[in-house]
Amino acid sequence: MPAETRRDVFQAIADPTRRKIIDLLSDEPMTLNAIADKFLISRPAISQHIKHLEECDLIEIEQKGRERFCKVKPQNLIPAFMWLEKYQQQWVSRVDNFEKYVTSIKSKSDKNDQQK
Questions:
Q1: Hey, is 31 helix, strand or coil?
Q2: φ, ψ (nearest 5 deg) of residue 2
Q3: Torsion angle, CA of 15/81/10/96, rounded to 10 degrees?
Q4: How far apart are alpha carbons 101 and 52 in whole angstroms?
Q5: pLDDT per position as a tens digit, 41-69
Q6: Strands, E assignment, the chain
Q7: Architecture of domain 3-72
Q8: Calpha distance 8→97 (Å, rounded)
Q9: DSSP type of residue 59
Q10: Distances (CA, A) of 49 to 10, 19, 77, 113
Q11: DSSP three-state, residue 77
């Protein structure tokens, strides 16, 4: 695959169907047919999603007899986790500050109500 079209973890998790496939595979390896049975879209569409995940190195496919089993490679999700973690810390801080602000306004309102 040419460098300019190289896929990465962020492209993989951008699609809700691929995220659901990763969720399914996080429990146990599954065959392509077992994965496809969990969705209301065509098997060729699921195959394209599986191919995308494999190109992003988020899953591996192992041939066992006549079946092909897909297995998630959770260690390759770490870059996305680390990137999101940075923003989660910022949002936790913002939510905490907003909660303090709302509490202070409520406290002032309660005091005003008691003085009346």
A1: strand
A2: -60, 150
A3: 70
A4: 45
A5: 999 999 999 999 999 999 999 999 999 99
A6: 30-31, 59-64, 67-72
A7: Orthogonal Bundle (1.10)
A8: 35
A9: E
A10: 14, 10, 16, 59
A11: helix
